[in-house]
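Workshop exercise sheet. Pairs work together: one partner reads the sequence aloud, the other fills in the structure field after running the prediction. Swap roles for the next sheet.
Pair: D.N. / O.F.
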Amino acid sequence: MSRVHNGWQRGHEYALHRPGQRKTDTATRKAIADRYADGESMAALGRAYGICVKTVRQVLIDAGVELRPARGRGRPFGGES
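Structure field:
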């Protein structure tokens, strides 16, 4: 018997979320913002939560967290010049 976490199945791979649905819940989004504020990098947070850096960045923007300058660039990751 195979397990499907929430009933959504694609071929032989099982999806943890419905396509188009957020992969992070409210508690996870808050934890990401808190850990970033405590000094953890976007890349480390992405690895920890299984999401890409762009998603981490959007979570932080949605939470109103001020982004730190990216190393060597003097501006936040992906920000305007």
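Discussion prompt: The CA atoms of residues 15 and 21 lie 11 Å apart. What would you look at next?
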